[in-house]
Amino acid sequence: MNVLESASLNSNAIYPLELEVNGERRWLWVRAAETLLHTLRDHLGLTGCKPGCENGDCGACTVILNGLPMKSCLMLAVEADGQRITTIEGLKHSPVQEQFVLKQAFQCGYCTSGFIMNGHGLLSAHPDADPETIRLWLESNICRCTSYEEIHGAIMAALAVNKEGGSATGSS
Amino acid sequence: MIPFDFEYYRPSSVKEAADAYQALQAQGKQPMYWSGGTEIITMARLNEDRPGAVVDLKAIPECNVIEFRENDLIIGGCVTLSAVTGSNFFPLLGRAAQGVADQTSRNKITLGGNLCGRIYYREAVLPLLVADSRLVIAGKGGVREAAIHEVFRGQIRLEPGEFLLQTVTDREFVSLPSVHVKKRQIGNVGYPLVTLVAVKKGSRIRAAFSGICGFPFRSASIEQVLNTPGLSAEERARQAAGRLPAPPLTNTEGTADYRLFLFKQTIKDAIHALEGR
Description:
- The complex is a heterodimer of chains A (172) and B (277).
- Chain A is of the alpha+beta class and 172 residues long.
- Chain A has two domains: 77 residues, Roll (Ubiquitin-like (UB roll)), CATH 3.10.20.30; 73 residues, Orthogonal Bundle (DNA polymerase, domain 1).
- Helix content of chain A is 35%, strand content 16%.
- Chain A is built from six helices and five strands.
- Chain A has a five-stranded mixed sheet with strand order 2-1-5-3-4, with helices on both faces.
- In chain A, helix 3 crosses helix 4 and helix 3 crosses helix 6.
- The longest helix of chain A is centred in the C-terminal third of the chain and has 16 residues.
- Chain A starts with a helix and ends in a 9-residue tail after the last helix.
- Chain B folds into three domains: 50 residues, Uridine Diphospho-n-acetylenolpyruvylglucosamine Reductase, domain 2, CATH 3.30.43; 113 residues, 2-Layer Sandwich (Uridine Diphospho-n-acetylenolpyruvylglucosamine Reductase, domain 3), CATH 3.30.465; 98 residues, Enolase-like, domain 1 (2-Layer Sandwich).
- Chain B contains eleven helices and 14 strands.
- The longest helix of chain B is centred in the last third of the chain and has 20 residues.
- The radius of gyration of chain B is 19 Å and the shape is globular.
- In chain B, 51% of the residues are buried.
- Chains A and B meet through helix 1, strand 4 and helix 5 of A and strand 1, helix 1, helix 2 and helix 5 of B.
């Protein structure tokens, strides 16, 4: 069966999807035009990823896809078929979460899950991140309450804890 | 949320992709090729793009290559900008790629998408222009290779149904002395007022620009003045500003006058960096 023959089964633009989300296999049907953000929120009830700008600017919808932060508003759910996703609901007492609490690195909290997912991705990918790498990664998210100093402090503290022997990823 | 539906196809070979596009086009579905897809999502959300179907290229192995083959650096059109930077195979391209959007978005934005997109800055093309790279283009007629200067003139000019499969860059260009400068209105994320990429090959400077006009370009006329012996950096910058291929841009990022000022300043900075004076 060629690509068009197989796809013609889906001419109503609804597609089967298999995801591994927070360690669980999930099967569902989605519109091709639906972004991963809305699939996670509206089909799977994972409302920790937040719709902000829905334009790739704010980072509130950040999840981890195959180990890298991804803005779920910039990805179709069908593109994630077969992929491994971690949302904020999949983190349990990760170093970044704990440091966000200790450093009070939030005010209204709307951007917090996105920042934590990005920081979690940073710790996993670059446990020895230098200041330039930290700056680059944190530029992907916006906090309208401007808690940037505290957020930066939380990430730095999580990196330091990690270097002293803590787990980079916590239980996710 | 995208307020309309489209069909989604994910071919696993070049031929399947070209055939799918052609068939969908014949069915009147106005298909679009999809790589990172970030720009299409953004435009579709605003109803500015309304494809009836998209053909996702990411499952095509040739689109995901990033490697040296003998004297050529091959980069597939679906390689993400963060992977281009992370590989460090072509440091100048890595720096230009790192200037686009932000780190997380670059995990999704691809080299092919940046070159072929509607948003006219397309900064990742600048190192490829100064390196005289070649583009591997696929379509219903098969695969062809063309000089970047034949295909990319302000924007990519492909035949209907064609897509960018790979870029090919001669190894000698990836390690030349180089400069990348991006001037923004504010901060480290955003569209450019002026982006300059320059290399020094032998005794000659090659330069390409984005942001100053409504399209990225490399200009033989500007390179002629940049390489005129006996002229000061100040004079070369002044003359280069008089040889722009189009009027400087005015938009929400900045005015034409401000862009011209920055254009001359970045040229002087590049000359100082590459010539040590």
